[in-house]
Each structure stands twice: as structure tokens, then as C-alpha cells.
Amino acid sequence: MTKFAAFMILAMVRLAVTLPAYESLAGLSEREIGEFININGVARIPNPPAPLPENDNGLKLVNDPAHPFIAAGPNDIRGPCSALNTLASHGYLPRNGAARPDQLVTGVMEGLNLGNDFAKFLVYQAFLMNGNPLTNLMSIGMKTPETGPDPPKPALVGGLSQHGTFEGDTSMTRVDAFFRDQAVFNETLFQEFTEFSTKYGFNGTYDLNAVAELRHQRLLDSMANNPELVFASPRILSAYSEAVFPTIFFVDGRLNNRQLTIDAARHFFDFQMMPADFHRQPAPVNFTIIDPLVSEIFNKHPFTPGVNKGKGNFVLMLETPSLSDFCGIYEDIVLRVIPGQYPKPTGALKQALNTNLDFFYGAVSAEHDCKQVFPYGK
Ligand code: HEM
């Protein structure tokens, strides 16, 4: 038997034993993944999953017996995203918190009914900034050996908790990285979330009014107190979209009134758990639903991107794309942020990056008229 065949059998046996639902490299040791790359170059990159089939893309009980909540164990990774944490704790994603992009796309479609394009946009964007293109794995939290040996520096492969990539300042339930751990749920901030819902939301819920006020307040707070605040592309887009998401995806699809109760918010944000009997959205949610809501909250309290040069000294960055410039933010990610980590990739690494860049652009162009840009040539 060749070394390769022996390795693959070992890998398959391990996967069969430990991860029956996922054909993932996650869970293999660094040595085993290294061996895989030595032999294979890079892990195979599956195509992005197709949309859910028409006969299975509607309202559905998702906190079901096939997806029981199991609290994260000591070796399971969780991070700054309340949705992905929850999906991992229900087995819609690998419970250890290291996943392939296609698993993430499938997990968010099945568990919360994200539209296919929207899911791919979030996942491939995050993967290019935080994942490992060689092993095709990404941590949903801190950096971990679970995602295998890193490509050469300055690549970070930091996982979703990596500050200054997808993760950034002014989060609603996490403090800014300048203060402490930017990925951990913060009870004081959740109390503020609750107060704003009581004050501005219908019947004390987190609705679009509450979103607009809390989002604005979190920016004012960081401007006043975080001397190193960065509030520019691409963070501005995720900050404003994430504020809206809970009013959609965390609300039971049978009600679907865009009014999130504090009890349901507590479940997702703090317990990383779906409420009992939770049903997902009644139809896939794409940009056409998200974009106008983001514009609506922006228009209530418009801002210009910028950075703090010391507390209370917010300096505008007029050269960074504004929140409404979706294609500008796409180009900023592809031509500045990603080459910042991968300045001159070659060989299999370049190929893997280009493949993921194509997947990312496929999602970007599905509902936005943006021109594709190529940091590493066509
Ligand atoms: C599909 C792939 C997704 C990826 C890769 C992703 C990634 C992230 C990351 C990196 C953060 C940290 C940003 C920060 O606050 O600094 C975050 C925050 C967040 N995510 Fe996700 N996310 C995804 C989907 C979702 C979905 C479907 C929801 C639905 C509710 C969601 C809700 C949130 C919320 C509410 C926050 C903000 C937490 C806070 O500000 O306290 N995410 N996500």
C-alpha cells in the first residue's frame, strides 16, 4: 500500500469515528494534515453548495431532535458570531468550531435560512481573511492548530476572532479589542442592548428602531473611549449588517415580525442556543431583504468612516469607501485587505486564493452590479 493510500484510509477511519456527518480534515492532528498537504499540495476545494431545493427551503423546525443543543466542550471553539456559535452547538456546523467554507454555507442555509448568495458572500469573505486556504478550514473563533499548518506570513489564519479583519470595533455584545477579549459575550453590553430595546423597541423588543439607536450609541461610545478605534471599510459593512441580522434570523419564522424578544436574544447571544421549538425563516433571506434595512438604520444616524487618533479624536477617512458603496467595499477587501496577508502567493496557494476569490465574486455579483477585480492577475 502506498503512503498516500495508507494516509487516506487512516483519515477516513478517523473521520468515520469522530465526525460522521462531515468529511472534514478537522480533528486530524497537525502532523496528519501536514502529511496530507505534502502529498496533495492543498486540500480539495469543493464548489459552493447550491441553494436549498424548492421543496425544502421554507419554514422548518430547526431546534429538532436531529440537532440537539450540546454546550461547547473545553476543546470546542466558539467566537464573536452568535449565529455561528449557536449553529455549531446544534450540530449544523462541526461542533468543534473548525469548518470548511462549504460546510458553513450549508449550515447557515439549513439552520437559519440564509439565502445562498448571501451565505456565500459572508462565508467566502470571512474565509479569505481568516481561514486557511491550504487546508480549506476556518476557525469560528480563535486561532487554532485544528486548521492545520499555516501558509507563510504575513498570512494570519487567525479565525473569526482575529481583530482588524472581519472582527472589528463597536460590536453590540462584545467589547472592542483595545479593552479585553473582543470575541467573548459581555453581560454589561447585553444590559445596554436590553435597555435600548426597552426604550426604543416595540413592546421592549429589539426591532429596527432599537437597532438604529443601539448601533449609533455603540459608535459614539467607541469614539469617546477607545483611543484605537477603527471604523472604516470593511468593518462598517459587517457592523451595520450584523446589527440588523438578529431582527430577522433570530426571530421565529412562524411569527417573522422583525421583533426579537430579549429572551430569544439571550438564548442566541449568551447561551449559544436556539430557543425551544425554534423555526427558521419562512423563505431564504438574500441581499434584497438585508440591504434596505441596513440603509434605513444608516439614514437615521449617518456617519463618515474614520479612526480615532486618541480618545474622542475621530479623524475622518474620506478615501475609504462609504457604507453605501458596496462595490467599493468589495474592491477594498480584494485589492487591499487580502493582499495584505497574501502579497505574492505562488503555486497551489495562489490557485486556492483565486478559487475562493471567484466564489466570493460570484456571491457579490449575484445581486450587485460590481466589476470583478483580480489581485493576482486573471
Ligand atoms: C454566514 C456566515 C457568517 C460569518 C462568517 C459571520 C462572522 C461574524 C464575525 C466575524 C463577527 C464578529 C464581528 C464583530 O462584531 O466584531 C460576527 C458577529 C455577528 N454575527 Fe455573524 N457571521 C455569519 C453569519 C451570521 C448570521 C446568519 C447571523 C444572524 C443573526 C449573524 C449574526 C451576528 C451578530 C448579531 C454579530 C454581532 C455580535 C455583536 O456585535 O455583539 N452572523 N459574525
TrEMBL record:
Short name of one Pfam family for this protein?
Peroxidase_2
Q: According to the lineage, what is the superkingdom?
A: Eukaryota
Q: Which cofactor does it need?
A: heme b
| UniProt KW ATP-binding keyword | no
Under InterPro entries, the record lists: Chloroperoxidase, Chloroperoxidase-like_sf
Please name the GO terms that the record assigns under molecular function.
metal ion binding; peroxidase activity
Official protein name in the record = Heme haloperoxidase family profile domain-containing protein
- Taxonomic lineage of the native organism: Eukaryota, Fungi, Dikarya, Basidiomycota, Agaricomycotina
